[in-house]
Amino acid sequence: MLHSGSLPRKRVLLSVRTFTRTPGCFAGHNKWSKIKQRKGIEDAKKSKTYGKAALEILTAAKIGGSSSPAENSMLATAIRRAKEAGVPKENIENAIARAERMKGHGQVLTFEAMMNASTGLIIECRSDNINRTVGKLREILHHHGARPAPVKFLFQQRGYVKVQIGDDMENLLDRLISECPVDFAQWCDEAPEQRGVELACRITDLSRVTKLIEEYAPSSPLCEILASEVNWAPLENHDASEEERTLVESLVEDLQENDDIERVFTTLESNHLIVGC
Fold first, then answer.
1. Nearest-CA neighbor of 103 among 53, 135, 63?
2. Whole-number percent of the chain with pLDDT over 90
3. C-alpha to C-alpha distances, 53 to 79, 91, 226, nearest whole angstrom
4. Are 203 and 185 in contact (CB under 8 A)?
C-alpha cells in the first residue's frame, strides 16, 4: 500500500565480485632452477677432475718412490698438470699428504667385485688392518648394490706408459718398436693443449720401455713421461647406459675417498690397447 506523498523505492541489485587464484609464472624461480642445475653439472665435472688429479698424484708418488716432487719427476709432473687443470692448492696438498701416509705402510691387497651384473671392478688397497679394510670395502659395495665376485678374467694386467711429445712422435715410436713389442694410441687434451702417445707393453718390459723414453727425452723438448705403471685394462669395451655409468662413477668416488684404497679399475673404462702374450 502506497502512502500519499511517498514514491516507490527502486530495488538496486548489487553485483558481487568473486576472486579466483591462479598460479602465477615466477620467472625468477625458473631462472634459479636452471642456475642450480648448471651449477650441479659444473660441480660434478670439478669433482671428477679433482678426483682424477688426486689419483694421478698418488700413483706418481707410488711409482716414483717418493712423495717429494724434488726427488720424483713423475710426481712433479702430476702436480703441475693438477695446477693447470685448476685443482685447488689444498686438494693437491691433501693428495701429497695421503701419498706420504700410504708410503711403505701396510699390506697390498687386491679385491674383485661386480656391479649391475655386468660391470667388473678391480680394487687395489694398502692396509695395516685387513679386517677394517675388508669390512669398510664390503660396506661401500653393499651400499651401491655391488658385491664381491671373480672378475679378473674380464681384464688384462699390463705395463702402461703415457707420454707427452711433439711432432717427433714417430721417431720415438720407431725406436720403441725396434726394441720391445708395444701397442700404442695417440691422445690429445684441448685444455691445456697437449698431445702424445699411450703405450701398452708386457709387465716385464715396462722398465725397459720407460728407460728408452727417458734416454730419448733430452733430444725432444716436449717429451715427458706422464705415467708409467702396471694397471688393469678391460679386454673388451663395454656398452652401458648413462644411468649405469653414473651409478658406477658414484661407487668409484666413494671407494677412492677411503684412505686404504689406492686405485680402482672398471670394465667401463675405454681401452684400445691390447698386449700380446
1. 63
2. 42
3. 8, 9, 12
4. no
Residue 23 has pLDDT above 90, yes or no: no
**Average pLDDT of the chain, as a whole number:** 83
Closest listed residue to residue 260, CA positions, set 144, 163, 145, 139: 139
3-state secondary structure of 197: strand
Residue 202 main-chain phi, psi, to 5 deg: -65, 150
H runs (alpha helix) in the chain? 27-64, 73-84, 89-102, 130-143, 169-179, 206-216, 242-256
Least Cα distance to 163 among 171, 152, 172, 155 occurs for 172
d(CA 262, CA 109): 10
- Using alpha carbons, select from 117, 115, 69, 120 the residue that is nearest to residue 95: 69
CA 108 to chain centre: 22
Q: What is the dihedral of CA 65, 220, 52, 133, to 10 degrees?
A: -20
Q: Is the Cβ–Cβ distance between 128 and 107 less than 8 Å?
A: yes
Closest to 112 in 3D by CA, of 153, 145, 144, 54: 153
> Distance between CA atoms of 168 and 235, rounded to whole angstroms?
30
Total-model pTM = 0.70
Grid coordinates representing 102 are 700410504
Write the Ramachandran bin of 245: left for phi over 0, alpha for psi from -120 to 50, otherwise beta.
alpha
